# Entry
Amino acid sequence: MDRESRAVESAPALVEAMDRFFPDAATSTQIIDDLAQRRNEASHGWQSELLSFELMQAYIEVVDAFCVALFEAAASAVARHFVRLQGVELGRPDKVFRNHIAGYYSLPHGVAVGDVIAVVTSKGVRCARVLELQRDHASVESAEAGYSTSVRVALRLSQRHRLFVLPVAAQGLT
# Structure
């Protein structure tokens, strides 16, 4: 099984939806598999039992979570290619504050508010815009390389994550 498939099957939204509506399901994709089987039966003219309104609502919730998981896996794969081909590495933060602020003693590359930052983790790549930069405890619109700078994004960070600045062409990812 490839990385994207594992990411979809273990996506928190999908696992949570399955646990909430179908706690006894063998896999997180059992409902999707059931819908595919029902579609195949219908296309061949076979009769299939109808789902109750309540069960259909649960299926809709699971399909919605599955779609979110698919989107996140696809976005991560695309972002991974952008990082590899055009990303400018900021590296691992020296400190992480309040789970969303990467602190650098000496910023390795210039960054501006609104730039897209790719956060590379063991589970994939997530992207977010720079929400705020601080230098000397003051908010700034941009920070040059070599200065002590804090970078705030809307993603959960740790000191193990590697951060990259993506080029303007990649900014449609967020």
Observations:
- Helices lie at 3-9, 12-21, 30-43, 53-86.
- The mean pLDDT is 89.
